[in-house]
Amino acid sequence: MLAPFYDLLATAVYPQLTPKMAMKLGSKYKFRELEARHWEQFAEEAGLAKAATRKRLQQLANELPTAARKLQAAPPHGFVGNAVVEQIVQLIEQRCTLTLRRLV
After folding, report:
1. pLDDT digits (tens, 9 = 90+) for 21-47
2. Is the pLDDT of residue 17 over 90?
3. How many Å apart are CA 13 and CA 19, to the nearest integer?
4. What are the domain boundaries of the chain?
């Protein structure tokens, strides 16, 4: 069930790599093309309730940016000041904001 989520960011911060995800969501392989209907299509294909899927996506999109910033700042990881990690966190923030807008 969570397998498609691992790929939402995988290579997006590396411009020399394709923005295409390894797995499609709905009928789309590119995050920038995802709309609410594609998440509904994903839910249907996965045998999940559309409303519950939308609610969970909204919850994750609201929580992930804060969780990413906390992880970035956690001392044992050494991510503070790491440019690639900062790009990843910014991308998480941008994509979560976009996802919330598109799910309305």
Report:
1. 878 889 999 989 999 999 999 999 999
2. no
3. 9
4. 3-103
